[in-house]
Amino acid sequence: MYPEGAGLEHTGLPLVGSVELPIVLDFALSVIWIAGVINAMNLIDGLDGLAAGVTFFVAVTNLVLSLHGGNALGAFFSATIAGAVVGFLIFNWNPAIIFMGDTGSMFLGYILATTSIMTSQKMSTAVAMGVVAVLVIGIVRFFGFFNVSQAVRGAMHHSQLESRLRRELPDFTAGMMYEAGSLDDVWERLCAMCGKCEFKSVSWRSVGVKPTDERREELLDENSARYEKEQQRGFLKIHTSAAIDTSAYIEIKITYPARLGKLTQEGDTVLQLTAEVVGRALGRTIREGKWGEGATSIARKSPAEKQPRDADREAVVEQEAVFEQDAGNGLDGAWEMLVESCRACGFLGVGWHSVGLKPPDERDISFDGQGWAHGAIIRKSVAVGQLSFLEVRFLYRGKRGKRASTEIRHAARRIERELRERLIMSH
After folding, report:
1. In a domain? residue 99
2. Do the strands 248-257 and 235-245 form a parallel or antiparallel pair, or are they unpaired?
3. Could you give the 3-state DSSP secondary structure of residue 389?
4. How far is residue 387 from each of residues 105, 119, 305, 326, 360, measured CA to CA in Å?
5. Global confidence as pTM
6. Ramachandran class of 145: left when φ > 0, alpha when ψ lies in -120 to 50, beta otherwise
């Protein structure tokens, strides 16, 4: 039962004037209004300071209406709730240290609903409801919620890529953990999973471990009618990487039909998990001394190329040394670009150390002057040559041991690509 005196009873309608409502309709509309405002406040309590800020503005509006209409009780409740919310908002502003929870948001919704009805007894009910609706919709829209067009586009362009990866990931992980014991096993299981997802091709390349393993598998027959149909729609490419051990990583590239949709943020997380499963399985082959068994390279096509002569080996070593010297000369410009990008993205610091380069190159910088003892670190590997790479560390505000947010991972991956392109251009 709603509180005594907190009913609509009379309402003002444009061109009609004051209309007295029947008691049944009065009761029904009052209950719907109170329940609706309570649930609305509970739903918008999703961002720091949002529900408290909306409550403050609505309470101030009700206070003005109460004072103008001579409603002392409504003015008392509105002023009280506005003052209480201001004190709470100081500690609930981003980053919040206290939260109101469901009980607090529903209580505020109840107070706002009842005071709005009480102040509307001598004022137009439409004005109390209009102010609340405009404030709530405006603030929620400002923070990026209630975007109907975006929600419709997301529903119409749902990514099948993500759903297929999610569907195959559990069995793929279990097989990798308990059954894959060699490079060939890991590769065959990766190809099998990509085939079930209806991908066109998959390839990988190891960096930082000898012998280098590089493979590619075409999963869609180019002579089939299905390939011709998919080719008309187009193909998309994605790539990811994962650590094998502290000094090596694996790069995985996938080509898939465009009809499966673009890679979403959730899909990117699932793809990264898939790559990490592959990385752990390959790391196990190294620890068990099985890495060299079945290692291959798609760049080598004949037995003679697999075992080059001494003169060929010397030429390869000399070429790699020249590459490392050229890359080393371009590291200064790449470092400046890396520092500028990380500072713009809000990272607390950045650093790298080289593996395989002579002489070694190691740099780091902290933007806030507090060093690397605080915050959390996300690592990325960027190839410099065939046998050398940079291990890049991004310092961000977070807790060590916890997975970085999607925004942080995307920023680090974007900067990683920019750094890789810069090194290629400098070479």
Report:
1. yes
2. antiparallel
3. strand
4. 58, 76, 18, 14, 13
5. 0.40
6. beta
CA-closest candidate to residue 199, choices 278, 249, 244, 263? 263
| pLDDT tens-digit map of 188-235 | 999 999 988 889 999 999 988 888 889 999 888 777 777 777 877 788
End-of-domain residue from the set 112, 146, 180: 146
Token pair 């009609």 in the structure block, residue: 16
**Which helix (H) or strand (E) is 154 found in, with range?**
helix 148-156
Beta strands per DSSP E along 83-175: none
**Residue 149 in tokens:** 């067009």
Residue 300 CB coordination number (10 Å): 14
Q: Which residues pair with 389 in a beta bridge?
A: 355, 383
pLDDT tens for residues 233-287?
A: 788 888 888 889 888 889 999 998 888 888 777 778 888 888 888 998 898 888 8
Residue span of the structural domain in which 92 resides: 10-146
Q: Cα dist. 371→151, 349, 376, 401 in Å?
A: 42, 8, 12, 18
Residue 301 and residue 318 share a domain: no
User: How many domains does the structure of the chain reveal?
Assistant: 3
Same domain, 165 and 181: yes
Domain boundary, last residue among 280, 305, 330: 305
Identify whether residues 30 and 141 lie together within a single domain.
yes
CA 85/CA 333 separation, integer angstroms: 51
* 410 inside domain: yes
